[in-house]
Design goal:
With 122 residues, the protein is α+β, with helices and mostly antiparallel strands.
Length: 122
């Protein structure tokens, strides 16, 4: 019983740390996948093109909403101001992350996950 009482807190902290790390990895995978989906949606957008690329912005916003992310988490830039066919569109998705393990100070316990995808507009 004494050995178990000494080892149990360490095992609990390791388990909580592993779960928190798994959540961050899941978020990283979701950010990468959402950037890919939003980039593809921007590339094949069949909306009106024009200054500011309103069709591409609508496609990116729709993809972000479908994936459960806030539309403000994505930004895009284009090599052409009107996003015509053949121009490149870069979509960047960011999402904050944090790890909190009770009674354990982790030097880097929060940050921002970011993923970007560049596609040619079709």
């Amino acid at each position: 019983m004494v050995e178990f009482a000494l080892v149990l807190p360490i095992l609990v902290l390791l388990t909580i740390g592993a779960v928190e790390f798994g959540i961050v990895v899941k978020d990283w995978i979701n950010v990468t996948n959402t950037a890919r989906i939003a980039g593809r949606a921007a590339a094949v957008s069949r909306f009106d093109h024009g200054p500011g690329c309103p069709g591409v912005q609508q496609a990116v916003d729709a993809a972000m909403t479908r994936q459960g992310f806030a539309t403000a988490a994505a930004s895009f830039s284009s090599s052409d101001a009107s996003c015509v066919a053949g121009s490149e569109v870069t979509v960047t998705v960011t999402h904050p992350w944090s790890v909190s393990v009770p009674f354990l100070q982790i030097p880097v316990s929060s940050g921002t996950l970011s993923s970007d995808v560049t596609e040619k507009v079709e």
